[in-house]
């Protein structure tokens, strides 16, 4: 690790407890012998060698359960159900490929469901090893033993030793359904756009069999509670709830029962659920560009909020929509988000909090003294954050740098829609895994912005992970967007805080590190994931400084991910705080989960 990140713990003084003829040997603060210093005769001594006694094991502290919810966040479903359409059909589906020939069972019958999958031309090779929910077992105490103390610590940790975070700080772990659930063609789930990745013949690891969270969720919740993780963010797939995806189509009762049990089981174990309504897995029939996107989205989202709004305090409407192609689809998403926000606050009378999650690795000028590089970095941020955060947080138009880019297929937001969108969010939610350097391209930004055929269009900036002095930004991971680069955490948080001024604060909704070569290590090597621990410890240390020294309101952090995931076609990028054996499906804690929990035990006020 580089000196900019970590410093070794001080070594024990070589002779700290030795004496010679009753006189103490010089301490480690005094000069050690060198060519011009000699020790007097008799300065060395022998003693009897003995092995030290083993340090008593330290065990993880489980959560207090069940979770107490003194005040409901919304009316119970018995009251809220009146807000749903009266003519909704609730049914169950079972995928039978031979049923495609059935044409007399209506628009949404079993035959139509089979044709839905057949027409998508999606077929998974691997079949789930489970058919029912697996009963949980208590986590053995032998799995809850803390690892040995860290051999390295973040630089400047002594400065933050006494810094505290508020008692209501939201800290925990995150995940997404398609990446961990498996069983993608069971119990009535319809196809999504993510299936076009996972079911490709060229994909080495399809997601029909991954961590199998769909059937092992009770065991996973037990494991989170056993190590004391208080918040768990998971997503619910649109096409499990509404298999055909569109408003007016049947609702899948099996899916409602399944997620009701997941939420209740989490609460029973002391875990607060955070729900992401849409995490990339759009129905095939409802692209973001659909002018009716908001209507279809609300039809689905209302099912979730009416049923679980009383128990769920935090909702993420859409995950990282700012990474979508730059067109009017972004405005459709903002309108859908605002429509749901208004319905939740006004119709459902919900008291919880709603956000929309942004992706952004901060653009850092390659040369901070070069005005062109600074302008390029700010332009990049306009495209990544300003395009949606301006209307949401500031009530301002999409940045001109975006709208004036030649060939851009996005219109200014109308004054009516700007009024609809403005302020319809309770806090800023962001996934700042790392940072990157940005510089103006050859020929300049203006020339690129005027040429839609330029390969750098529309952002029209050069990005790199190598500094102008030739050094990599930080310790590299398996993926190109993630580095151990804590020196830019405060800049990222400061940029968001001072640019968009989110009154509700900032939630770091995803951050994590997939080390190089994890898949080639044995289980013991995977468990001792020092790089991941260093990433989290250094990142969180900078969060403390942002809060206490920069005045930034950070309301929480969620580690990605609580378990190794399918990162959209591969199991190579292992972000998890736990490993998964893809033969036995056994989970194993990594040291990072213990160090992650330990950080908050030290710094969150009780």
3D structure, described in words:
- InterPro entries: GH, Glyco_hydro_1.
- Keywords: Signal.
- Pfam families: Glyco_hydro_1.
- GO terms for molecular function: beta-glucosidase activity.
- By secondary structure, the protein is of the alpha/beta class.
- The protein has one domain: Glycosidases (TIM Barrel, Alpha-Beta Barrel).
- 31% of the residues lie in helices and 13% in strands.
- The strands form seven sheets. It has an eight-stranded parallel beta barrel, surrounded by four helices.
- A hairpin with a 6-residue loop joins strand 20 and strand 21.
- The N terminus is likely disordered.
Provide keyphrases for this structure:
signal; TIM Barrel; Beta-glucosidase; 3-stranded mixed sheet; 13% strand; 18 helices; Glyco_hydro_1; GH; alpha/beta; 606 residues; globular; disordered N terminus
Show unreliable segments. 1-35
> With helices defined by DSSP (H or I, 4 residues minimum), what is the helix count?
18
- Spatial strand arrangement across the major sheet: 6-7-9-10-11-13-18-19
The geometry reads as: globular
Indicate how many domains the architecture comprises.
Answer: 1
Share of helix, binned = 25-40%
CATH superfamily: Glycosidases
The main sheet comes to:
8 strands, parallel, barrel
How does CATH name the architecture? Alpha-Beta Barrel
CATH class: Alpha Beta
Named CATH topology: TIM Barrel
Q: What's the average pLDDT? A: 91
What separation lies between the terminal Cα atoms? Answer: 33 Å
Number of extended strands: 21
- Class from helix and strand fractions: alpha/beta
InterPro entries: GH, Glyco_hydro_1
GO biological process, one term: carbohydrate metabolic process
Protein name: Beta-glucosidase
Keywords: Signal
């Amino acid at each position: 690790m580089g000196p900019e990140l970590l410093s070794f713990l001080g070594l024990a003084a070589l002779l700290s407890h030795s004496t010679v003829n009753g006189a103490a040997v010089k301490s480690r603060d005094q000069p050690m012998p060198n060519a011009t210093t000699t020790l007097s005769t008799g300065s060395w001594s022998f003693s009897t060698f003995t092995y030290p006694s083993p340090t008593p094991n330290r065990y993880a502290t489980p959560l207090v359960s069940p979770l107490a919810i003194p005040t409901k966040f919304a009316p119970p479903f018995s009251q809220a159900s009146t807000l749903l359409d009266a003519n909704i059909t609730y049914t169950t589906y079972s995928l039978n490929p031979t049923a495609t020939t059935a044409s007399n069972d209506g628009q949404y019958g079993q035959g139509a469901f089979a044709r839905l999958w057949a027409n998508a031309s999606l077929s998974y090779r691997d079949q789930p090893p489970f058919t029912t929910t697996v009963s949980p077992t208590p986590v053995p105490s032998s799995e809850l033993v803390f690892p040995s103390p860290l051999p390295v610590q973040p630089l400047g940790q002594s400065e933050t030793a006494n810094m505290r975070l508020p008692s209501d700080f939201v800290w925990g772990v995150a995940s997404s359904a398609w990446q961990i659930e498996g069983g993608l063609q069971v119990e009535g789930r319809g196809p999504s756009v993510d299936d076009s990745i996972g079911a490709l013949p060229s994909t080495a690891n399809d997601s029909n069999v991954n961590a199998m969270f769909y059937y092992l969720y009770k065991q996973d919740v037990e494991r989170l509670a056993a190590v004391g993780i208080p918040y768990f963010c998971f997503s619910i797939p649109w096409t499990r709830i509404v298999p055909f995806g569109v408003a007016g189509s049947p609702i899948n009762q099996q899916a409602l029962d399944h997620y009701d049990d997941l939420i209740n089981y989490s609460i029973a174990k002391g875990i607060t659920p955070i729900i992401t309504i849409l995490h990339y897995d759009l129905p095939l029939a409802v692209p973001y560009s659909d002018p009716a996107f908001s209507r279809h989205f609300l039809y689905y989202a209302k099912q979730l909020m009416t049923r679980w709004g009383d128990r769920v305090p935090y909702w993420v409407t859409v995950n990282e929509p700012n990474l979508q192609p730059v067109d009017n689809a972004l405005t459709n998403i903002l309108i859908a988000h605002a429509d749901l926000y208004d319905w939740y606050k006004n119709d459902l009378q919900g008291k919880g909090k709603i956000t929309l999650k942004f992706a952004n690795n901060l653009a850092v000028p390659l040369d901070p003294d070069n005005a062109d590089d600074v302008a390029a970095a700010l332009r990049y941020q306009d495209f990544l954050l300003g395009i949606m955060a301006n209307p949401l947080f500031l009530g301002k138009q999409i940045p001109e740098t975006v709208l004036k880019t030649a060939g851009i297929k996005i219109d200014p937001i109308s004054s009516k829609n700007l009024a609809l969108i403005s302020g319809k969010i309770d806090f800023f939610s962001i996934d700042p895994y790392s940072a990157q350097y940005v510089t103006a391209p050859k020929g300049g930004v203006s020339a690129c912005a005027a040429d839609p055929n330029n390969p750098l269009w529309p952002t029209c900036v050069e990005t790199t992970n190598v500094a102008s002095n030739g050094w990599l930004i930080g310790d590299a991971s398996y993926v190109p967007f993630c580095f151990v680069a804590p020196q830019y955490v405060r800049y990222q948080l400061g940029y968001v805080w001072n640019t968009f001024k989110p009154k509700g604060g900032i939630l770091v909704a995803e951050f994590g590190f997939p080390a190089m070569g994890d898949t080639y290590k044995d289980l013991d090597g995977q468990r001792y994931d020092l790089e991941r621990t260093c990433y989290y410890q250094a990142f969180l240390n900078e969060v403390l400084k942002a809060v206490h020294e920069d005045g930034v309101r950070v309301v929480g952090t969620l580690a990605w991910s609580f378990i190794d995931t399918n990162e959209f076609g591969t199991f190579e990028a292992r972000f998890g705080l736990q490993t998964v054996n893809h033969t036995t499906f056994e989970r194993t804690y990594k040291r990072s989960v213990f160090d992650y929990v330990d950080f908050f035990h030290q710094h969150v006020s009780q």
